[in-house]
Amino acid sequence: SKNMSSIYQEERKIKKKKILFVANWQDESAFIEIHQRTALEKAKIKKNFIFMYLGNIGPVAGVDLLIRAFNIARLPNAELWIVGNGSDKEKCKELVKELSVSNVSFLEIPSGSKAVAEIQSQADLFLLPVKKKAAMSSIPSKLIAYLFSAKPIISTVDSESDTAKAISDAQCGWIGEPENADWLSDAMKKIITLPKKKLIEMGEKGLKFGLENYSKRNSCEKLCEAIIEIANENTK
Q1: C-alpha distance from residue 73 to each of 50, 77, 112, 152 (Å)
Q2: pTM, full prediction
Q3: φ, ψ for residue 123 (rounded to 5)?
Q4: 101: left (phi over 0), alpha (psi -120 to 50) or beta
């Protein structure tokens, strides 16, 4: 991330001209294929609104926040899908039982980017929680996959992080204070009432931003050009 670039300059005293920033990237092809196909499915049976988290269920992610917020929101026509594994998964399952939260499902992450794109295509909105100060040095790979799936995002993340800046610049979601279940529950209640057209527009903006900044095609090209330029300089 750009914040990490600053850390290298300030703490390791590496000159700015010696650093090339190339964003983390993913292969976008499977997501684009799924998106184009599902976009053609006009007559779908009405389903519950699906909030989805897909990624590692560990202490840094703070997935328990999603469960607490979903419980506070009490949305009868919504579901929370938690897709993934991690050290806090069993704790999260116990929390669901303790709070008696309904409509929460735990699923395994399928293998392969196409399978991930398939399951993400079922979401109406993605959730990206990160504990305080944990998002300052990188952009989580799940953000890129979320953007490629063309759905809006709610993220509870430090406002000065690159993750928050990406979502803000893309105009594809909402940013809230980390570990604030009340803010997140209010956001859930507000967003579920928005017109579907509005959510689709935000998702498309996210997809466009993701392709411009985090696609394998663009990022690999930038990296290759830099390597060739350096090699040519060294042969002079």
Answers
A1: 14, 11, 33, 19
A2: 0.82
A3: -75, 150
A4: beta
Spatial separation of the C-alpha atoms in residues 52 and 129, rounded to whole Å: 11
Q: What does the DSSP assignment read for 113-138?
A: HHHHHHHHTT-SEEEEE--TTTTSS-
Alpha carbon dihedral 78, 106, 143, 156, in 10-degree steps, equals 60
And the tokens for 112? 């392969």
What are the pLDDT digits (tens) for 158-211? 999 999 999 999 999 999 999 999 999 999 999 999 999 999 999 999 999 999
What pairing do the DSSP bridges indicate for beta strands 125-129 and 153-156? parallel
Q: Other CB atoms closer than 10 Å to residue 130's CB: what's the count?
A: 23
Cα 19 from Cα 5, distance rounded (Å):
7
Query: Exposed e or buried b for every residue in 56-74, given b needs 16+ CB within 10 A?
Result: bbeeebbbbbbbbbbbbbe
